[in-house]
Amino acid sequence: MLTTDITIIGAGVVGLATALQLRRRDPNLNIVIIEKESGPAAHQSGHNSGVLHAGIYYKPGSLKAELCRTGRLAMVEFCASEDIPHEICGKVIVALDEGDVERLQVLEERARLNGIRATRIDAQELHEIEPHAAGLAALHVPDTGIVDYRAVCQRYARLICERATPKGGNGTIMYSARVRSTSVRGGSVVVHTTKGDVTTRRLVNCAGLHSDRVARILGQEPRVRIVPFKGEYYELNADARGLVRNLIYPVPDPAFPFLGVHFTRMISGAVECGPNAVLAMGREAYGSWQPNFVDLAATFFGTPGFWRFARKHWKAGLGEVRRSMSKSAFVRALQRLVPDIRPEQLVAAAAGIRAQALGPDGKLVDDFVFEESGAVLSVCNAPSPAATASLAIGNAISDRILKMDG
C-alpha cells in the first residue's frame, strides 16, 4: 500500500499541472497521480486543436477569464523554458453578416474588460492577414497561439516524477490503475484501485470526462453532470494548407455554447477544420459507430436537465448532426469562412470528446466548477480553456488543498 500526502485522480493536463504546482510550492510533499490509461493526456488533453487561448470569449470576472489570462502567460513561459514548440500567431474572428458585426462589438468590449488585445479590422485588413478569408469585418487577436498539449503533458509528467527530496518528497504516477472505491481509515482516505490501495491525507479529482462519476465514488454529490459532446474534424491536404495562414474563427452564436467550425493551423503545420459538436455516443466513443449504452442511459435518464437542454437547442443540434452525417454540409459551413475550400481538399481527422457540465436547470455550465467536502476536492467542470489555463488552475487548486492542510 502506498501512503502519500496528496493523491490526484487523472493524468490529464489539469491533474498533471496541479501536481506540478504542488511540487513547486512544497517539494517535500509526497504526491501520487492515479490514471486509468497507460499514459498521460489520453482523452481531452490529447484530443484538442492545440490553441493557446487569449481569453476573449469569457465572461468578465469569471474564473475562466481570470485563469485564462494568467494561465496563458504561464504556459508561454513554461514552453519557452522547456523548449516545447509553440507559436504566438494570432487569430481572426470573422463577421460574415450584419448580425455578426453587432456581436463583434460585444466581443470587442469583452476583450477590453478582460484585458485582451483585440483590434477591429475591415475586410481589406482581414484579407491582408488571411487572404482567402471571407467577411465584412473581423477582430484580430494577436496573442492567441498554438502548442502541442500532448508534449506539454509529457513534460509535466517528467518534471513531477524526476526529483525526490531528502525529506521524502516525490511524485509518482500510477498508470493503468482504475479507481474502484474509497474508504476512511484513521483520518486518512484510502483509494482502492485495480493496482492496489493508496492512503492519502488529501484527494483531488481531475477525472475529466468521468469527474462526476468519480466524485460520487469519493462520497460527493456534484451539482452538475457531465454530458459528452463529440467534436469531429477534417484536415486540409498538403496542397490546400496555404488557404489558411493561422487561425480563422466565426463570431460565436450567443445562443449556443460552442464556437462553431473554424480553421486552426497546428504546431505541426497541419490545418484542422472543425469541430462540430454532436452528442457523443459515449464518454470515450471516438469512433463513427461506437455506442456505450451505459453512458447513453446516464445522459438520457440520469442527467437532470438534459431534456430541458435538448428542447431548447434541438434546432442547433440538428444542424450539428447534419454536418456530422454529411461532408458536403460540413464543407458548406467551412466555405462561409474560406470560400475557396473544396471537398476533395478535406481529409478526415481524429475526433475529440468534450466533457461539458450540465446543470439541473438544463443550462450548460460556462465556468470552471470545484466541489469541496472534507479532504476531497473535485474539478467538476474544466472545459476549454483548461489546457491554456492549466498552470493557473493548478495553482488555484493548490491554494485550496494547502488550506485544507492549514
Topology, please?
Layout: E1 2-9, H1 13-25, E2 30-34, E3 51-52, H2 63-81, E4 86-88, E5 91-95, H3 98-114, E6 119-122, H4 123-129, E7 137-141, E8 145-147, H5 149-161, E9 170-174, E10 179-185, E11 188-193, E12 196-205, H6 211-217, E13 225-231, E14 234-236, E15 247-250, E16 262-265, E17 271-274, E18 278-279, H7 293-301, H8 306-325, H9 327-335, E19 346-348, E20 352-358, E21 369-373, E22 376-381, H10 390-405
Parallel strand pairs: 1-2, 1-12, 2-9, 5-15, 12-22
Antiparallel strand pairs: 3-8, 4-8, 5-7, 6-7, 10-11, 11-12, 13-18, 13-20, 14-17, 14-19, 15-16, 16-17, 21-22
Structure description:
This protein has 406 residues and is of the alpha+beta class. It folds into three domains: 2-45 and 150-224 and 367-405, FAD/NAD(P)-binding domain (3-Layer(bba) Sandwich); 91-140, no CATH class; 225-364, D-Amino Acid Oxidase, Chain A, domain 2 (2-Layer Sandwich), CATH 3.30.9. The protein is built from ten helices and 22 strands. Strands 1, 2, 9, 10, 11, 12, 21 and 22 form an eight-stranded mixed sheet that branches. An eight-stranded mixed sheet has the order 6-7-5-15-16-17-14-19, sandwiched between helices. A three-stranded antiparallel sheet has the order 3-8-4. The two termini are 26 Å apart.
Question: Keyphrases for this structure?
Answer:
10 helices, FAD/NAD(P)-binding domain, eight-stranded mixed sheet, 406 residues, alpha+beta, 32% helix, 3 domains, D-Amino Acid Oxidase, Chain A, domain 2
